[in-house]
Amino acid sequence: MYKLKAADWHPEHFKLEVADRVATITLNRPDRKNPLTFESYAELRDTFHKFQYVDDVRSIVITGAGGNFCSGGDVHDIIGPLTKMDMNGLLTFTRMTGNLVKEMRTCPQPIISAIDGICAGAGAIVSMASDMRYATPDAKTAFLFVRVGLAGCDMGACAILPRIIGHGRASELLYTGRVMSAQDGLAWGYFNDVVAPDQVLAKARDMALSLANGPAFAHAMTKKCLHQEWDMSIEQALETEAEAQAICMQTQDFTRAYNAFVAKQKPVFEGN
């Protein structure tokens, strides 16, 4: 079977570390608050696509270096050139950025963002597209597209953000581009928790490790259903989940859990 080892990858535009079946992606341009370029967008998109083929990663953490998460698209490397592109070039770019979100949502591993400092523009989108988010009190999240003369409907924000924090709050952030504080994000359900700066990465990694040690096939099924069922009726969702759960009941992890329960032991899941 075609399988890759993420531990063998050496991306050019960000750091990637694999340990204990957890991959940690670090956006690593701290001098500029970790902005994205054309090349890093594409490499992130391709990396998340390849995660479906690996056998050494069961969960993913994404964070930023130097006390910031990501300041969005690089002003000089992206924003400037975009002002000179024709429509075909612009549409190629916006589709590429949207494809990053698609790959994050369709890769089977849960993705957890650890957010400190600036989390703006495309950085806010990357956090939004994650499955869980942990922040520090200093986290400042802004979907600031309107502040550069663009629409708030960028990279799926108008579809995804209202489902996380509600339509009214999402409308406010997308129309105004204002900063969402860590306290607001926690109260609105955007952040799963807010912890001290020296604890946020550890918090995300602890959750990722817990998931990695769980039933990986079942987690992938949960993620798939969480996304697929947005557009389903309740009746369709019930049938989808009935089929998904029946498939999971055929896994060896299900049998391992039963046998461990009978033996009064903690189950050891192997992801199959």
From TrEMBL:
Domain of life: Bacteria
TM segment ranges: none
Assigned keywords, A-Z: Lyase
GO molecular function terms noted in the UniProt entry: enoyl-CoA hydratase activity
Record-listed E.C. numbers: 4.2.1.17
Family: Belongs to the enoyl-CoA hydratase/isomerase family.
PANTHER family referenced in this protein's UniProt entry, alphabetically: EG:BACN32G11.4 PROTEIN, ENOYL-COA HYDRATASE
Protein name: Enoyl-CoA hydratase
Species, as recorded: Thauera phenylacetica B4P
